[in-house]
Backbone:
């Protein structure tokens, strides 16, 4: 067994003013070279987990308990500045919206090399050369020309390639990708997924892949956590997940997903009974947790 | 198959390209639709599928004459509406309804749900009085599975799926002959998406309207539509009944679109083939 | 929804404090003839430059003292609220109406309508406003009506620009397209669908404009281009007080405070309204 590179244990965060928990004791681990899917619908807390990893939770949200460790070092124990430097050298982020994630007034070359210069302290010429190599690696034809362009001059797929290049620039050992293909056309999505998978495998990166698309989970990931209302309801290998889903919510999600190969079995909405049961389960978790807090 | 509600012949559309607008002189135009011909059968759901830039949304808006075609015929219920002006279209608007993609911007934030559904009923004299409009609006809410109490709420108090139901209620309340559904589930979660599509199938069975369902997602279309038109760059690539299109796609582009959808089952070679 | 409520509560003190002062100001203006302790125009040279009630040498009955001609400062202050309120409402509404209508039309119809209106606005804004207002009033003969006309003619562009931008933004929303698909005429769509969404911005601007109108009126009466001298105004009081600041500071200071608080209240009221309206819009 290899050591987990990113290890989140028992993480609970809550809204400051109401005390409502947004994450309910989340534990998950990603090993080097592994793609771990974080699956869930909007509001399940997927992005909150990504934010907790990078220490950029919204001001209105506080960590109640739990640890986030990278390379065995507890991030919560670090000062803001130490944490930023520690993470900057080890982890990178691929966001969903490739347009707003790039600075509109900066050329592509600078978007990639700035990170190398500022965080890794690389000399300018070297960073520039590295940026060109990276663009080639993400299969952008004529990288020298593209480096001189501004983000609005690129298509959505090209921008996402640039962001992937930027993410891999500092040779991070962990990448968190937040729905990076959701805004793309299906044909482009497939290319981008293939690109991410190839880069990840070659660099041996630990990849935490956030998505709502079960198809993407099946094709790209090895392990998965299914998230509902800030709680991991199922955590297993992807083969196991699709062959024999254990939790009722996972099964409901699968039944609701559209499938062109089995239309009659797909697009089935969850029953009100199931929704009620899920709500009860969440309430139970909260009661149990409150009790433990009171005792411990 | 039933009679055609729409018969489209050699439809051309171009739009001004504001990004390349010169300081003086006329704005250059981009060609959007390049001579399309097809029919929309009455009582069926026709899927219009394509990637971004295919012209599917513009095609939909031209059908219900929110856009003016450059050339071609749009026969709606036996009458060419391609050249009609706004004034002549107004009486037809009741039968040409649209449900929008973005349930956040398609509902006026300053109006209650009841007013949003009720106003068109009064405008087209489907309801004789505001009391009747209110009753019909409540009926429509029930039809789309929302409690009557929602009539008093404002759009910002509703979830995305609930808003989309209000959009559907607004369209079906008028009992139109044709409804254009423009990417109506693409902003929604998997479970809301399944609910909305199930609702559409129920409503269709009950009310028997004709619908064009625009989508970028082939797999959604599979269950809902009777027939699918695949578009690319302003042209029709393939036009077939749904089962045939999925089982024996004639065009390589249709096959590419279909095979690019990641099915929720583990298969190792899928990414390598890309 | 929860978030919107939080912001609404926070908007409280600013809105209530400024609202309170404005109510006070409006009541003083409306009931001025009934509540002034003295005739604001009555001169008594024997009682000239009396200090306010808390300074030695004061005379009972003259709370804020008297000016060089022996006129009661408090009475003049209250009586001067009238022209201020009159100008605030008159000029504010006139500029608002003219600018908002043109802004709505330009933003909604775009094309040539927009080009023509926007060009006029650009040309208008190239004139220095204070100079233009002085010229206008001089040309129209100094009177309160002239002041109102001058402010409206100059300041409608503020409304026009903001309302145009706001309308353009709303115009892009699907609900406008939806109204068209429903068969609503353009004018009906503008009035029934778009206007309710632009109204908060207009109301906020109106409040700010009223404050500006009060200042402009004060400037014009300072240079003696507003009402005739038989009506007290804050501007003319400040002008008179400036000359005798070393002998009777109160003649200058009290109208300045009144002017300051009123303009501040208008702008804060506008800001408060904005905070109150904003979350609903999002």
Residues:
């Amino acid at each position: 067994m290899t050591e987990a590179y990113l290890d989140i244990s028992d993480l609970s965060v809550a809204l400051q003013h109401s005390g409502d928990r947004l994450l309910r004791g989340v534990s998950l681990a990603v090993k080097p070279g592994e793609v771990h899917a974080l699956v869930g619908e909007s509001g399940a807390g997927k992005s909150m987990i990504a934010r907790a990893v990078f220490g950029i939770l919204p001001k209105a949200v506080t960590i109640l308990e739990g640890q986030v460790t990278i390379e065995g070092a507890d991030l919560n124990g670090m000062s803001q500045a130490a944490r930023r430097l520690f993470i900057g050298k080890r982890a990178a982020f691929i966001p969903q919206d490739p347009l707003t994630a790039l600075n509109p007034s900066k050329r592509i070359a600078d978007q990639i090399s700035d990170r190398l210069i500022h965080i890794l302290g690389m000399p300018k010429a070297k960073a520039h050369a590295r940026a060109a190599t990276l663009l080639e690696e993400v299969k952008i034809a004529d990288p020298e020309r593209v480096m001189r362009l501004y983000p609005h001059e690129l298509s959505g797929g090209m921008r996402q390639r640039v962001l992937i290049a930027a993410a891999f620039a500092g040779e991070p050992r962990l990448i968190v990708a937040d729905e990076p293909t959701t805004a793309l056309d299906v044909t482009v999505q497939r290319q981008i997924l293939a690109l991410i998978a190839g880069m990840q495998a070659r660099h041996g990166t630990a990849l935490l892949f956030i998505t709502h698309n079960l198809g993407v989970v099946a094709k790209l990931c090895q392990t998965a956590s299914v998230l509902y209302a800030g709680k991991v309801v199922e955590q297993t290998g992807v083969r196991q997940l699709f062959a024999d889903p254990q939790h009722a919510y996972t099964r409901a999600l699968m039944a609701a997903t559209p499938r062109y190969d089995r239309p009659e079995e797909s697009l089935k909405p969850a029953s009100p009974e199931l929704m009620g049961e899920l709500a009860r389960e969440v309430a139970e978790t909260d009661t149990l947790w409150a009790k433990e807090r009171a005792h411990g | 198959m039933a009679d055609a509600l729409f018969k489209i012949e050699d439809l051309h559309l171009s739009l001004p390209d504001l990004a390349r607008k010169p300081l003086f002189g006329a704005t250059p135009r981009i060609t959007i639709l390049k001579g399309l011909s097809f029919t929309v059968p009455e009582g069926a759901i026709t899927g219009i599928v394509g990637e971004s830039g295919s012209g599917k949304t513009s095609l939909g808006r031209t059908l219900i004459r929110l856009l003016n075609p450059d050339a071609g015929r749009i026969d709606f219920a036996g009458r060419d509406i391609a050249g009609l002006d706004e004034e002549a279209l107004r009486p037809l608007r009741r039968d040409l309804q649209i449900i929008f993609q973005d349930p956040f911007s398609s509902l006026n934030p300053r109006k209650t749900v009841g007013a949003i559904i009720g106003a068109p009923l009064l405008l087209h004299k489907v309801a004789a009085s505001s009391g009747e409009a209110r009753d019909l609006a409540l009926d429509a809410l029930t039809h789309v599975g929302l409690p009557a109490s929602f009539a008093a709420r404002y759009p910002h108090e509703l979830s995305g799926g609930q808003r989309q139901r209000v959009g559907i209620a607004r369209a079906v309340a008028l009992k139109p002959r044709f409804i254009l559904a423009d990417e109506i589930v693409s902003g929604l979660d998997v479970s809301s998406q399944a609910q909305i599509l199930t609702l559409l199938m129920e409503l269709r069975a009950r009310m028997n309207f004709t619908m064009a369902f625009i989508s970028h997602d082939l797999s959604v279309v599979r269950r809902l539509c009777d027939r699918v038109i695949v578009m690319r760059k302003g042209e029709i690539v393939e036009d077939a009944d749904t089962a045939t299109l999925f089982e024996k796609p004639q065009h390589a582009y249709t096959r590419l679109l279909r095979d690019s959808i990641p099915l929720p089952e583990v298969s190792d070679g899928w990414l390598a083939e890309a | 929804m929860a978030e919107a409520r939080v912001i609404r509560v926070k908007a409280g003190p600013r809105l209530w404090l400024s609202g309170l002062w404005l109510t006070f100001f409006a009541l003083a203006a409306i009931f001025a003839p009934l509540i002034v302790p003295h005739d604001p125009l009555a001169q008594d040279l024997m009682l000239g430059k009396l200090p306010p009630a808390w300074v030695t040498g004061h005379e009972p009955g003259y709370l804020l003292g008297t000016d060089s001609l022996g006129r009661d400062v408090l009475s003049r202050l209250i009586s001067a609220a009238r022209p201020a309120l009159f100008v605030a409402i008159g000029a504010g509404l006139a500029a608002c109406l003219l600018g908002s209508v043109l802004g709505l039309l330009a933003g909604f119809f775009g094309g040539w309508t927009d080009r023509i209106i926007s060009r006029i606005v650009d040309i208008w804004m190239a004139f220095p406003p204070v100079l233009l207002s002085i010229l206008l009033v001089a040309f129209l003969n100094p009177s309160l009506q002239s002041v109102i006309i001058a402010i409206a003619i100059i300041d409608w562009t503020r409304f026009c620009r903001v309302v145009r931008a706001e309308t353009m933004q709303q115009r892009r929303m699907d609900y406008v397209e939806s109204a068209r698909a429903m068969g609503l005429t353009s004018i009906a769509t503008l009035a029934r669908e778009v206007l309710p969404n632009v109204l908060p911005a207009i109301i906020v601007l109106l409040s700010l404009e009223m404050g500006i109108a009060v200042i402009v009126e004060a400037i014009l009466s300072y240079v003696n281009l507003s009402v005739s001298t038989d009506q007290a105004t804050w501007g003319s009081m400040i002008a008179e007080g400036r000359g005798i600041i070393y002998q009777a500071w109160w003649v200058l200071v009290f109208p300045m405070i009144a002017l300051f608080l009123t303009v501040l209240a208008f702008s804060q009221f506008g800001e408060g309204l904005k905070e109150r309206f904003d979350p609903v819009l999002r």
User: Anything to note?
Assistant: The first strand of chain A starts at residue 6 and ends at 15. Chain A has one domain: 6-295. Chain A touches chain B at residues 41-42, 156, 185-187, 189-191, 193-194, 197, 212-220, 238-239, 242, 252-261, 263-264, 266-270 (CB under 8 Å).
